[in-house]
Amino acid sequence: MTMEKQIIRLRGQQSEMIVEIGEIAEVLYWGESISGYPKGAALALKRPVPYGRLDNDVPVSLHPELARGVFGSPALEGHRNGQDWAPAFTIKSISHQSGSLIIESHDSIAGLALTVNLDLDSNDVVQLKQTLTNTGEGEYLVNRLANTLPIPERANELLTYYGRWVKEFQQVRQTLSQGGYQQENRRGRTSHEHYPALIAGTKGFGECDGDVWGFHFAWSGNHRMRVDVKADGRRVVQAEAIYLPGEISLQPGESLVTPVLYASHSGAGLNSMSQQFHGHVRESILAPQISEKPRPIHLNTWEGIYFDHDPAYIKEMATESAKMGVERFIIDDGWFKGRNGDKAALGDWYLDEAKYPQGLEGIVSHVNQLGMEFGLWFEPEMINKDSDLYRNHPDWLLAVGGYDQPTGRNQYAIDLQNEDAFAYLLERLDHFLSRYNIAYIKWDMNREIVQPAHRGRAAGNNQVTRYYELVEQIRERHPEVEIESCAAGGGRIDFEVLKRTHRFWTSDNNDALERQQIQRGFSYFFPPEVMGSHIGARHCHSTRRTHDIRFRGLTALFGHMGIELDPVKEGAEEKVGFERYIKLHKTYRSLLHSGKSVRIPVDDHDGQLAKAVISEDGNEALVMVAQLSMPTNSLSGVLRIPGLDADKAYTISVIDHPDNFHEGLVNQQPAWTKQPTVLTGEWCQKIGLAMPILDAESAVLIRLAAE
């Protein structure tokens, strides 16, 4: 019996989704909220039926099906020994309350049941996931199970991501007219190359204008994202985990749950969209530690000492770190048995007694006595063949037997589906966290996955879920320990990881110039308090470029700040600089980690980036203008700051600038940069301030305080 058609309205603060429920579920509208639902609404969106095609209108449902004449990409591809490969699900019941809709469907012929969970929260963020259950006889092999959402025909431009190691979160735009777009990631982790997100919008959409629909797929393994333009002009976005051949087999009664597709609409451009995602992350994803205490300033030893560990010297590093205001001291790679380079010892998670003959207790105690938390680096999922672990357990490799799998970073992956291997890693992590006062783990994952197999069968999907389980079990045993997700830098950054961790290492690249773009790309979906942003050494290890402390300090300011260097070897002038920016970050940390993030459009868009964080009450703002390259023109235009309270008067002052800001570079900087100036928020938004002239690779920090 088919359900009578009914209309369900899911409403957020600024947007709404109108869903028609009948035999199937179709999203009729997704955009800005409307005040009512007029009597003629049922007729207003009823489509014509063109000649020369199927004789009836074919809706694109939340679960598109070939069996109903949807000739694009179906949501489900699978079969039961060659049968039941074209199911047509019919809705049998729904549950609707507030912003949540649960749709139960089944196909009695194919022996399948489907549950669709659709939510729209108060931050205007949509969550969509599906559960497929085998209700028939015999196993059902699933090749694909995709989440699908429509976007309107006026969405004719895409912003998508690309990147690589040390150059993550790069963005590119393209027209969406015919055909469509598809990206695939088969690297076994979220990946540097294809971060699982995209943004669709009206042509020319910007930070402050245009209709935009942002999508983030919360999955830490192989994925596919696509946007299809049908021949009739309708558009759909799909996101799915990529299942390797034969990987997903449902026995009778078993279910498969998709990862969550997150999405959000804004009628006021990208900044509003980002603030909606940030609000959702802060309220629904982040662990309590992130909001309940200030994010500690880090010092990580990696770029300071690499594998050269001397306990006495490390204590000196900790002492100098504390003097500069560091609050968390982390020993990176090189502390465990036989680890003198990156070709050996991964998997042998025992303290290297040759390097640490007195154990770690003395260092941990020293760090704690200095008022700092202690952190330690692990890479639990990886193994070197030159290790006792591999020599004793060669069968623990995540690999297809008989093949000579290529290494990545001189290492291999451990099969987390092997119960003995999983138990060993859990015991080793638990040992260190129980024995020592470790407040923080830097959890790394430095290679891509090739031929993931468990007992010969494809197991890429299950490897990811077992990683989640390993982190969850550590969190259950040690709930106060914070965990950073690092994968050769930014290779595993997504909402699903963030549900289990507290921070991302955004990139292995600490070059301030490159970080400006990397951190900007990151900001579209993630708030600054989870973005690891460190001040590196003057000479960057990854790009060989040099920057002064002011540019490095301001670039690291707008995130979860840290330092990545050897503080013992740094000169007095550099140390003074580190102290200055650590103190500056602490002064404004509560604002930076709770306010509204705004990316500011600039007139010199080829040479500058600008951003702000504005307090929720509109009483305070910090603005950074970064000059990335030589100014395009002799003047740099006008700085207009969106998001301020139009009715408030703000005192505007420059609180940090390059050494040569007022002399040498220009005859005269704008008058407002020399003395505090009072302007209204309306003036700052609509008319603005004459932009100062800056050298390439420098920045200025401006504060606005309501009177």
From TrEMBL:
CDD domains: GH36. GO terms for molecular function: alpha-galactosidase activity. It catalyses: Hydrolysis of terminal, non-reducing alpha-D-galactose residues in alpha-D-galactosides, including galactose oligosaccharides, galactomannans and galactolipids. It comes from the Bacteria. Keywords: Glycosidase, Hydrolase. InterPro entries: Aldolase_TIM (IPR013785), Alpga-gal_N_sf (IPR038417), Alpha-glycosidase_related (IPR050985), GH (IPR017853), Glyco_hydro_27/36_CS (IPR000111), Glyco_hydro_36 (IPR002252), Glyco_hydro_36_C (IPR031705), Glyco_hydro_36_N (IPR031704). Residues 26-250 form the Glycosyl hydrolase family 36 N-terminal domain. Residues 612-696 form the Glycosyl hydrolase family 36 C-terminal domain. Its EC number is 3.2.1.22. Signal peptide: none annotated. It holds the Pfam family Melibiase. Transmembrane segments: none annotated. The keyword Hydrolase applies. Belongs to the glycosyl hydrolase. This is Alpha-galactosidase.
